[in-house]
Amino acid sequence: MQLLAVWWVWIVLGVALAVLEVMIPGFVFLGFAIGAGLVGVLLGLGLLGGNVPLSALVFAVLSVAAFLILRRVVGVTKGQKKIWTRDINDN
Asked: Would you say the C-alpha torsion 8, 64, 27, 24 has a positive or negative sign?
């Protein structure tokens, strides 16, 4: 658990989640990547003091906030529907 008190671990986790988001798109992992990156920055600045439970709580709150903001900015709009008119396997 002490490894989670180090700032660069959170940054690496954020980068890994961002890479995973590129491989599996859908803005699912991007919120977590933003949350982990911000926790890494806050730990690096000394604002969280290396407190692991507080870091986990801040990570959860920031991840949910980032996910909701991303959903609002780039997510599906109200009433938006995709209607398929042809099958991709048809020539």
From this structure: positive
Q: How many domains does the chain have?
A: 1
In a domain, 14, yes or no: yes
On whether the pTM is more than 0.70, the answer is yes
Write out the chain's pLDDT in tens, 91 residues: 688 889 999 999 999 999 999 998 777 899 999 999 999 999 999 998 888 999 999 999 999 999 999 888 887 667 767 777 888 787 6
Distance in angstroms (rounded) separating the CA atoms of residues 91 and 88: 8
- Residue 32: half-sphere exposure toward Cβ, Cα within 13 Å: 13
Q: Is residue 54 part of a domain?
A: yes
* Residue 66 near residue 30 (C-beta atoms within 8 A): yes
For residue 5 the two structure tokens come to: 């008190």
